[in-house]
Design goal:
Length: 209
């Protein structure tokens, strides 16, 4: 078992010593084993964004801008969980909700900033504007019957001056099969492709510039 397969905050790599623990000794009730992250870099696109390691810096020109995740690797009828973190870097005074187009999916529930919602992801959810960093977990079933089956991440805002010029930082994007959220880990394909930035370095900019 590798360090990337261990969910954060359950057991650390330093606690694992070669030859001292086996997969059979792991109790599923006390340790969560991270699932495969299907949201690899090559499947994520958007209107206007740049990447900084595994962080996506999104610049918006209208309230529907954001990121989309290609669903070509998803299986019809299966459950998936989309999870991510985001911070509003500009126009935080008018950003009030997080949403995402998901025509090819059924929303089972969502957990936004620790609050559970039982309404559709495409309609959006309120965010706690007292927080600097927001968390989202979207529990979905893939139907795949829409003309656009992509899964979106779209912060929503309606500026009183009509100017759409916000910046959002989105990171720890993970899509995993099933209905359990595990700690973020990069897609195996990304690590094999040379994405080696230290995960902890991502957070330095969130509270900085």
């Amino acid at each position: 078992i590798t360090a990337n397969e261990i969910a954060p905050n359950t057991i650390t790599a330093n606690q694992i010593k070669a030859g001292s623990i086996t997969v059979n000794e792991l109790d599923a009730t006390t340790i969560r084993v991270g699932a495969k992250n299907l949201a690899k870099h090559s499947l994520i696109s958007g209107y206007s964004f740049v990447t900084d390691g595994f962080k996506y810096i999104v610049y918006t020109n209208n309230r529907a801008d954001g990121l989309s995740i290609d669903s070509s690797s998803f299986q019809k009828g299966k459950d998936y969980v989309l999870s991510y973190k985001f911070a509003v870097k500009e126009r935080s005074d008018v950003v009030s909700r997080i949403a995402g187009r998901c025509d090819g999916f059924t929303t089972n529930k969502a957990v936004i900033d620790g609050i559970t919602y039982n309404t559709g992801y495409d309609g959006g959810y309120n965010i706690d504007q007292t927080l600097m960093v927001h968390t989202a977990e979207i529990y979905l079933t893939f139907n795949g019957g829409a003309s656009d089956n992509k899964l979106y991440i779209q912060p929503q805002y309606w500026p009183s001056d009509g100017v759409y010029d916000a910046r959002f930082d989105i990171w720890d994007i993970q899509v995993e099969a099933g209905s359990v959220v595990t700690g973020w880990s990069p897609a195996a394909e990304d690590m094999a492709g040379g994405w080696t930035i230290a995960h902890d370095a991502i957070y330095s900019d969130v509270f900085g510039k």
